[in-house]
Specification:
This protein is α+β, with helices and mostly antiparallel strands. The chain is 37% helix and 18% strand. The chain has one domain.
Length: 126
């Protein structure tokens, strides 16, 4: 299931079979969402081809996991830009912020996919 979550956001993602081995060797099993967030934390997600979008101020009801951890540098560049949202090449719309994510459980800067309802709201603004 976690692989489907990853592929929905990044259809071309390659998931190393050893990642499954790592998951099975963990003392405490991860949920599918946690496994996807851990994979994203280890991947280098490129948002250079994302389309900037405007919309209402993001709120927590708009967000759904898995979140995609990003570097502080990328986070700062997104903060300096005007758009609050970006549409990834896969069609998934994300915003950005800080949240606790699997694999670290400390606050991390991340991209946060929107729910289907929130996606409709943001697209209506375009």
């Amino acid at each position: 299931m976690y692989k489907r979550m990853i592929k929905k956001i990044l259809p071309s993602a390659w998931i190393d079979p050893y990642f499954d081995v790592e998951l099975k060797q963990r003392e405490t099993p991860l949920t599918d969402i946690e496994a996807a967030e851990l994979w994203f934390a280890q991947a280098d997600v490129n948002v250079k081809r994302a389309t900037p979008l405007l919309g209402p101020e993001p709120t927590t009801w708009m967000l759904k996991r898995p979140y995609i951890p990003i570097s502080e540098t990328l986070f700062k560049s997104l903060l300096e830009a005007k758009p609050d949202y970006y549409q990834l090449p896969s069609g998934v719309i994300v915003t950005f912020g800080e949240a606790n994510v699997a694999g670290d459980w400390r606050k991390a800067t991340c991209l946060m996919p929107l729910t289907a309802d929130a996606t409709e709201v943001v697209l209506a603004w375009q």
